[in-house]
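Input:
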Amino acid sequence: MTGIAALSVAVSAVATLVAAAFAIPGALWIVHGRSRLRTALLVLFTAGLGLPPVAVGLAVAFTFWRSGPLGSWDLLYTPAAMAIAQTIIIFPLIGTLGVIALRTSDTTLSMQLAGLGVPRSRRFLLLAREVAPGLAAALLAGFGRALAEVGAAQMTGGNIEGQTRVLTTATMLSVGKAEFGGAFSFVAVLLGIMAVAAGIAMALQRRWA
Amino acid sequence: MGVTARELVARRGTFVLDVPTFEAGRAALLGPNGAGKTTLLLALHGLIPATGAVDRPARSASVFARPSVLRGSVLWNVATICEAVLDRGFGDARRRARAALGDVGLDTMIDTDARMLSTGQRQRLAIARALVVEPQALFLDEPFANVDADARPALRALIASYVERTNCDVVLATSFLADAVALCRAAVILRDGRVTHIGAIAALGTANDPYVRALLAEAAAVPLDRGGSSC
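Output:
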């Protein structure tokens, strides 16, 4: 159980960090950039909200299939493949919520801080502090979606015991075998992890408020 | 010292500000809406892209008509600016911030979330955080626009006394003659992005500009009684 829960958290956390590393700069660019291509990324973010995880799972599984385009990488049925699929699934979610978080911040605040003579590095920190709660919520939503996802995890991980079994795929298997006790305990741990993550996010938001 | 500019050109959308020369210690920028008062103010302060040469004191501070505030208490808002700009310890910054907030009449609200303030209260906060950094030049854009009428004279006097005491430069964009008279010596009239008149405020009556005539006429007589009807 501990290994399964740890893998769930690890895959989701890695996916959240990697997705955020691309989505948050993308959101910044959408809100503050000047290029017309910004709209294209915003469309990608928004449309991607409804991206079915099974479609992503299928695409990633196909790509890493032994006879597929990147079959030689030997990634199928590894945690890495699962993390790649989860990253693609939550990238639009973090991006969209990131855009909303960044847009609500006051557009002239930066100029007003500059007008008071606040040095550039401090301005950046103060602005980051303003948007931090919204971005924390975006990361939490992404982490939650990755943690709860089952279809792509099954297709790209294969639910191999001790290697790629996570809480959601373990629950599926237990129910399939009519082992409801096990299924309930997997779900209980899943809910517990989400509660802890939400608690951390809320504590941070309160601290910044 | 003063604020000076040469060949200053700034563009905002289709609007073009073109000021060949500007030189003033305490200047009020006057003119109708859309004349370029705020654009000139921001360009002189170096807050928007502009071409040309601008010279201003190293430490300057601004007050905007719609001040932005940071999340956090009123006291924290002012103290953190003081700390960041003057590079003081936070304890000293808090002490200075408390005094500055007392000066603008916000001493009873220092623990309030700054985002809960009314626009007029935000302007008081903005004045406090501008004075707390001890600027050598103040760039003011309608700094009293939403402040209660009965508090405006005190805030004007507060800034005026700071300006007198420190010999601070002032560039003020305003629609109110009283602000200009209290804080400035020179009047710069703008129209369509160009300076049409520079002169002493005291001699504003000689400016041949319809906006200035209207401004003076309004200041001379505010009819409280429109006649005829009774309550």
